[in-house]
Each structure stands twice: as structure tokens, then as C-alpha cells.
Amino acid sequence: MARLDGHWFIVCRSSDLGRAPRAAAIQGVPLVLFRGEGGQAGALEDRCPHRNAPLTAGRVVGGQLQCAYHGWRFDQGGRCRAVPGLPGEPEAKATRATAYPVRELDGFIWVHSSPSAPGAEPTTEPFRFPHLDDRRYTTVRRDFFVASTLHAAIENTLDVPHTAFLHGGLFRTARKENEIEVVVRRWSDRTEAEFIGEPRPKGLAGRILAPQGGVVVHFDRFLLPSVAQVEYRLGDASHLVTTTAMTPVSDFETRLYAVVTFRLPVPGWLVKPFVMPIAAQIFRQDARILTMQMDNTRRFGGERFAYTEIDVLGPHIWRLLKQAERGESPAYAPGPAGAPDHEHRLRMRV
Amino acid sequence: MARLDGHWFIVCRSSDLGRAPRAAAIQGVPLVLFRGEGGQAGALEDRCPHRNAPLTAGRVVGGQLQCAYHGWRFDQGGRCRAVPGLPGEPEAKATRATAYPVRELDGFIWVHSSPSAPGAEPTTEPFRFPHLDDRRYTTVRRDFFVASTLHAAIENTLDVPHTAFLHGGLFRTARKENEIEVVVRRWSDRTEAEFIGEPRPKGLAGRILAPQGGVVVHFDRFLLPSVAQVEYRLGDASHLVTTTAMTPVSDFETRLYAVVTFRLPVPGWLVKPFVMPIAAQIFRQDARILTMQMDNTRRFGGERFAYTEIDVLGPHIWRLLKQAERGESPAYAPGPAGAPDHEHRLRMRV
Amino acid sequence: MARLDGHWFIVCRSSDLGRAPRAAAIQGVPLVLFRGEGGQAGALEDRCPHRNAPLTAGRVVGGQLQCAYHGWRFDQGGRCRAVPGLPGEPEAKATRATAYPVRELDGFIWVHSSPSAPGAEPTTEPFRFPHLDDRRYTTVRRDFFVASTLHAAIENTLDVPHTAFLHGGLFRTARKENEIEVVVRRWSDRTEAEFIGEPRPKGLAGRILAPQGGVVVHFDRFLLPSVAQVEYRLGDASHLVTTTAMTPVSDFETRLYAVVTFRLPVPGWLVKPFVMPIAAQIFRQDARILTMQMDNTRRFGGERFAYTEIDVLGPHIWRLLKQAERGESPAYAPGPAGAPDHEHRLRMRV
Q1: Which of A165, A179, A296 sits opposite B47 (nearest CB)?
Q2: What ipTM, to 2 d.p.?
Q3: b/e string for B242-267 if b means 16 or more Cβ within 10 A?
Q4: Which of C152, C165, C300 faces A84 most closely, judged by CB atoms?
Q5: Looking at the domain covering A8-112, what would its CATH class be?
Q6: Which CATH superfamily hosts domain A138-349?
Q7: What is the pLDDT of residues B210-254, one digit of tens each?
Q8: Domain with CATH 2.102.10.10 in chain A
């Protein structure tokens, strides 16, 4: 699958990294995370340059990460600051550890997928989750792990047809009573599907979520390199955005950091107990099928997918990932995107 | 090992395939078996052509196999009959699943090792077990699994010298008191060894099995692609044929479907309780040594066998399998075979 | 790692090989050890030449190793002495097993890493452990297994800087109060480091071990192909030599046969209970870090070591192993070695 160089990925929540070093991985590269001087997060390749012991087996001493074998110490920049037994200046005589740029933002630790180069900072900054500072929104965070390629996990998150079938009864029905219109657009850094004509929830639920009536607005979006976003508006009163930043841990392992932000006519604390178990159930079903899909793909020696018109975003996600792999597509830049490179319309039964 | 295209192999007993889909494999190709319209057995590659989920995770709905991910449905021919959410005719828009020809015969389900081609049926039919309809014969069936190559499993089943040693005391002794003559013959679709001069069982057993006396007739046969047969006659009264159809599940896994048919001067129900535990013990000993042989072969990076003249059928089995692999030898066709391509005689001590 | 042909390696202690065959391995080659005629130890490739069954599954009958499958029997030279069922002379008709030269010395069984050639004996003999016959010395033997390359295990055994850190407090302190001189010498069959100026143990321990005072003499030595030796003298009274002969079981597995011989002013039986638990603790710490180092090396696709001047023997061990691999360096020959090929001095803090 795609090797995405020069991109930011989440490696853990801020609260997950304490005094002890912690293991992480991006695209198969093992990393050690630690808090160095001033509690600032650092990320090194998880291999001491001296005898290749894993630095995750070491500990943090005086704001430096100390290897468990010979006691070499490194700072967040990868500089060797101590070699026990060696007379003279260690930094001049010892080899640096490979370091990676790190950012701590919105309660997450992000690591750049290309190593730090001396004197050069990354040209982009990590993705920012929407509505976190808006007090009208309630926020819920959940992390998940799936044994899946990044591509299959993103497509699953943004795929409408499987929801009625795999998650039948949870939030769509298998009855397919309505035929709606879908508009698909692709830019160089993102792709989206707009679903027009989806019915409002019936009965009491509809009256609570959209008391003044109004239309349903539904967008599914993929933002390079690895963000899947589902946005719903019901009239003026209800707005829900689920944004999932995904980390390709290896070719066959993906970690999902989901941030759900919503504003509803009823208080968030009232909604959570009803919504969270359903969301957890949906995730379990998706994780199970993605693992089966992955295992089967490996058993047959690779993906061989077939597409129909209702696999609306799949081909565009694949195209953008491949372009990003070749360095031809940039990371998503917030804000309006101008005219799309591609647009088409289709009909789907939901 | 040999990849045998265009041959029939048993995948399970008829009674093993009920309402739920069932996994099988031939030569490393994962299959899903199911009973479609009218209960007719079908075999598809165990991969949905859409997103590659395993079809064994699905279920049978309305005589069609339904994928667990997006609900695509397939019939026994691999045609896609439903795509939830897709307006219009699914068969025209969706990709077929890869299907394999299937036959249900003699209580077994056979699958062809080459996929179905549109409008073309296999040119051969599966092997038929002998004496199943003859009311004078008693039939016993047993299935076994061995971690072994097909070649090593076939040779083991037809190898005489190991029986006295590995199974010492069970049906041959290690004392080697008799020297007998062996005639080895090979045709394009089979090879056989005829053992001449084997002693009749001593004492009571001999008087029961061959009350009028007479000679012992003993044939070991290999029939392409994978049938091992051992036939014994003692005088006119006793006749025993053990026919084992083997399925190469993978290069290192073989499944054995053994059918024992016999006609004896004593009733079958009287003999079974004495014979079956011995047969089970023999199989356990063979399975154990075959697994050790297989593991050791893999550890050393491949088979390196040495032959002596008493490895009578081994070289001919190997030759026929290699010829079948190259498409030069046909599946066994019942009936007399004409003059053999090869014949030689040797002496062996038993 | 190095494939060292034509060298002797220990496969087990003499007392480990009884009536039953025993499995061993050198550099990934599986062996079967057994005691043949007269109790003499033999070593064959653990594969019957007939059907490749593992000979370790057989048993010793009449001083010959009998295969469990067809009962072929082999002597220590690999000659086939019996083939059940085969008329005539087995030795003429059957294939030999691959045999390896064996020596039983000093309570160990040594096997040559190149197979026996007909009519040719190895040109070297195994390494002999020092002081075993000197009644003034106490001897302790211990076997260890580490998941490590031979190279990393040897370097670890002879590495001084890690002792203060990894084994901190056990026999060196991390305080590094003394700067000493090290002389490094390399010959074609060995390399050594002489440590000059190491302080004597303080207080009571020093008075007991060196009652008349005197200097500390400390040598670390590597002797081709795989012996690591640490020698300490404290004045005239105390002398301790730890000699570890290592066996490369596979590229990633090493077995250590350590022989500790010592002569002290206090009786050996008095010292053992204090020293052995410390030695065991040191070994556990080393085995743990070596396994982590090995796993990490494999995870990153190979060793990438960095050296400083206090990695005194590491580069020379590597060079000698590589030369031995290419057949350019001979096994260690006892006795004085003449002028070294290489000598340099450096300072280290201990």
C-alpha cells in the first residue's frame, strides 16, 4: 500500500504519554515516544544507534532517553548526550539517533512520517479537528485499532451501502425505500460525496432533531493523507461531524482516532448514553469485517476489487492515495477548494 | 509439488454440507461450498469479487450465497444476483464470482480443480468407488487429515516395507520369513504392484477367511490423479478393497477419504469391531510419521529421497504425478488398460 | 552472520547424551547425536536419506541408529547397516547418511561443522579448557541459551562498559571514578584487551582476595572460532578464568558453554554460594538485553552498529569472524602468538 512520506499522523493521545517511554509505529517504522526537557514530546527511531537495542526498553533520565544496554542518552533531537565510560564529549564521538518532528495539538501527539533533517522544519502542520473550541458542541473521542490496510479502512468509514446491510437496523434499514441523488467531487487534496434527498428521521426522533423542519444535509469526505469525515445537518438545529484521523501503523494495521462533535436541540449528556453503545456496536462490526477482508486479501496475495457506481468515493480515495504516494498530491489544506477537478452525479437507493 | 489442473477432488462428505456455507481448499485455493437452489451443491472461490471479504462468512438466502459485507448475492454458477442499493440489473453491472464445477456422487462432494469456463463442462467425471452397490459387500468410510505432501501420503498408503516395521505386530511381523515376488506395472493413468506368494494367515484366522484354501491375491494400485487402492483376495471367500481418494488441500496438507469394502465368510458386523481399532491405530502411526517427514523435509528445504528396489511403486507414482502436472497423463479411466508401458519383477522379504 | 566451516563446536555435555538419540544443531543444520558401538558418540544429519524422516525420532538398536519409518539402521560413520525387507547387502544398495566428525573431551561433545569426508580426518582438534586438571583450581560449569547472533553474544561477554550500566551494582559501579589504560592486540587467531590500572576491591574483600597486595591483571580475549575468555589475577593469591565456548545454533540462536575456573585464598566451596547467584543474575540481564537487541535487529532488517573507542574488542571480533568465514583465519592454536598484527592503546573510565 501507499507509503506516505512527509505527512503527519497521530501516534497517541497526549494523555497516553507519561514518564515512561512508549512504543509507536508509522508505516512499519518502530518509534519510541518520550517526554524530554520541559515535558516536550519527542519521537526517535526505536533503535539505539550503538548496539541497536530498542530504546523503548530504556527510561527517561534528566529529560533524556537512556538506552538500557550501555546507558547512552539522547534528547528529543536525537543528539547523543552521554556515553558512560567514554572520556571527552559524547556528542562529537557518538552517532545520533534518528529523530522525527513532533507536534502536540488538540490533545493528540502527531509525528511526521519523514525523519527530521538538520536545520529543516516540515513545510506543513498537522490537521486540526473542527469545532473543538466551539462551546455549543459536545465532543467525544474514541481510538480504535483495525487489522486492515489504510485504504480499506478509509473506504469502509465513508461507504454508505454497507451500512444498511452490515449494520442493518442500527441506523439504516435494508428496505431501500428511497432513491436519492449523490454528487461526487474530487480536488487535489480531498474528495467528497454529497447526498441529496435523504429522508429525515421519522416520528419523534425527527421532531426532536429538526423541530423547525428543513432538509437533511449529508457529506462524506476524505482529506489527504488519511482523514475520513462524515457531516450531517438536520435543519438549523442539529449538526454532527465525525472526523477520523487514521494512522497506517503498518501495511496491514490501521489505528483510528475518531472525534465526534455535535450540536443538537437536546443536551449532549442526554444523547451520549444512547448513541455511544450504538457507535461501539457499529465499530465492532466494521472491525470484524475489515479483519476478515484483510486476512482474505493476504490469503489471495493481494486486493482485487470490483467497483459499481454506488462505490462512490472508493475509486477517488484510491487515486488520491496513489497520487500522494508519488508526492503529486498535497496534504489537505483547510478552507474552500475552488472548482473540483472532477464532478459527477448518480442515483442510489437507501 | 504437483499442481494438478482439470482433475476432480473430494472436498467433503455429502452429509457435511448443510444449510451453512462451508470452507474447503484444493491445492491452496480457498473455496466456499454451499447448497443453492434445490439443495444443489456449489463451490466458489472464497472471495467476494467486490471487496474480497470471505464468502464463508456469509449465509445462504433464497438459494443464493450472500456476502457478509455489502450483501452481494451469488448463485452456484458465480453469477451476481443482487447488489443492495444499486438501481438496475445487478448481473449486468457487477462482477461474477469465480465458480468451480461440482458433482455429488457416492455420498461425496467432488470439486474440479480448474474454474468453470462459460459454456464448457469438464471433459471427465469423478472417480467411482467400487462395490458400493454390491449387497454382498460391507462398506466402511473414514476421513483423515495428514500434514503431508500428496506424493508422500500416496506412497505411504501403498508402501509394503514400512508396514512390518512402523506397524510391527499389527498386520505384518518384522521377522521377514518369506521372500515373495513382486510384479510392477505402469500405464499412462495408473501403476500397480502385484505381490505373488504371500503366505495365508496362519491357524484359525486362515481357516475362517479362506475355508476352501486357495492363494492370496494382493494388488497395490495408484490411479491418477490421487487414488490409492489396496486389494486382497483369500481364496474365493474373502475379498477386501481399500480405496483412498486423496485431496491436496495445500502443498503440505492432504485429506484422505478412505472407503473400505469387503466380503468375508463371516458377517461384516462381526468383523468391524475387531478391524476398525487396528485400522485407526495404523492411521495414527502413519499420520505421525508423515507429519514428522513433512516437517523435516521443510526444515531441510525440500525432499531428497533415496530409492532401493523394494520402494516398488514410489518412483512410478512420482513419474505419473509429474506427467499429470504437465498435462501429459490423463485421469484414471476404469476398465482394463491394455499392455503396460513398463513392467519389471523383483523379490522382497515380508 | 558468519558461516564457519571446518570448526569444532560443543553440542552438549557428555552427561546429556544417554541411550536415546538427541537433537542438536550447528549453524542451522539439524543433527542427531547418539551413542553407537562401545558408547562412542556419533553425529548425523537429522534426516534419513531414504524418506527424510528425522532420525531423532528413531532409537539405538545394537549400537546403530534405527529410523522410525522403515527401520533403516546407520552407524556413527553414516553407513547404512540394515534395510528391512531388502534381499542382499544393504550397504551396497542404500544411501549413506551424512555424518559429522565427533570428539568427546573435557566432559563435552564437540561436533565438526563440516561433514566427514571418506578417508579424511579434520586437520584441527577442539579447544581445550584451561586448568581443568589443576587440583588447586575449582571448576564450575554452566550452559546458557541466548536468542542472539554469535557475534553479539561474544561481544557482550567481553564488553566492559555495559557491565557498570546494565549490571550496575553487581560488580562494577556506574560512578566511573577511575580512568584506566587499555591495550588492544589482534593476531590472526585471537584478539585481546589488557586493562591496566584497575583498582583492587576495597576493604575486606581486597584483603581476602589479595592478602599480600599486588596489582590487578585483567585480560579479555576472543579466540577463534567462538571462545570468549575473561581472566583476572589479584596479586599472587587469586586467579579466575571464565572461558565460554559458544555454539552458533542458528543465525539467531547461540548456546554458551561457560567453564569458570578459579584459585582463591579462601576455599572454593565457600565462594560458590556467594558468586553463583550473582553470575546467574548477570546472565539473565545479558540474555534479556541480547534477545531485545536481536529482535530489534531483525525488525529493522539487520545490524547497523556504531562504534566509539571504548568498544574495544567489538571491531576486532567482527573482523576475525569475517576472516574465518572466508577461510582466511585459522582456529585458535594454544600457546604464545608472537608479535600481534595490530596493537593500540586507549583510555576508559571504569
Answers
A1: A296
A2: 0.91
A3: bbbbbbbbbebbbbbbbbbbbbbeee
A4: C165
A5: mainly beta
A6: Naphthalene 1,2-dioxygenase Alpha Subunit; Chain A, domain 1 (3.90.380.10)
A7: 888 788 999 999 999 999 999 999 988 899 999 999 999 999 999
A8: 8-112
